[in-house]
Amino acid sequence: MADYTFFTNPMSRGQIARWALHEAKADYDATLVDWADKPQSLLDANPMGKVPTLVHHHGDHDHVISEGAAICAYLADTERGGELAPREHERAAYYRGLFFASGPVEQAVVAKAMGWKVPDDREMMAGFGNIRRAMDMLAMLVSQSDYVCGDRFTMADVYVGSQVDWGLQFGSIPERPEFTAYADRLRARPAYGEAKAIDMKLIEEAQTDS
């Protein structure tokens, strides 16, 4: 048995976790999830049936990790001797970027996609303010240096970078030089290419079979 069981669908946020698994050089088996027929093993691990869900087979214990940002942080802590986790002076930037991307950025992008307009007098209640403020903040976080934590790639870049990468591809975030430059750096990483190739092949096969 591999160290990890990875529940995913290539047309989902599972792409984030696969990239993280490849950056971590983790030993994993993938279980592809059909939206209309979710396996009981996934529902046992995560009653919401969400992907990605990761199960770490650790000794005589199984540890379940769900939510993309949590999976990234967990793999950073457990694999490659913590090389992808933050060093002491990087923790503030690491956690700031990781949780900003998984909170306000995610909320802002979903609200935009759904056509939800937050009333001006209720922006403080929304958590992300408005899409412009969220994007200005995101641009600041990815333009101050090559990576979220400075000149060193960490697992925070997998999650923040996925938000930027997907946003540029699907138009859910605006085209800005800061975003394009950051995405280009991350797309050049071998682990990004490996993981993306697997998911693109799975998507192509699914479309051919349908």
Descriptors for this entry?
210 residues; Glutathione S-transferase Yfyf (Class Pi), Chain A, domain 2; 4-stranded mixed sheet; 9 helices; 4 strands
- Give the structural class: alpha+beta
Q: Which stretches of 5+ consecutive residues score pLDDT under 50?
A: none
In the CATH hierarchy, the architecture of the largest domain is Up-down Bundle
For the secondary structure, the number of strands is 4
Assign an overall shape. globular
Mean pLDDT: 96
The major beta sheet can be summarized as: 4 strands, mixed
* Span between termini: 31 Å
Radius of gyration: 17 Å
Give the CATH class of the largest domain: Mainly Alpha
Strand neighbour order, sheet with most strands = 2-1-3-4
Can you describe what's shown?
- By secondary structure, this protein is of the alpha+beta class.
- The protein folds into 2 domains: 4-82, Glutaredoxin (3-Layer(aba) Sandwich), CATH 3.40.30.10; 88-191, Glutathione S-transferase Yfyf (Class Pi), Chain A, domain 2 (Up-down Bundle), CATH 1.20.1050.10.
- The protein has helices at residues 14-23, 40-45, 68-78, 91-114, 123-126, 131-143, 155-170, 177-187, 190-209, and strands at residues 4-8, 28-32, 53-58, 61-66.
- It has a 4-stranded mixed sheet with strand order 2-1-3-4, covered by helices on one side.
- Helix 1 links the parallel strand 1 (4-8) and strand 2 (28-32).
- Helix 1 runs parallel beside helix 3 and helix 1 packs antiparallel against helix 7.
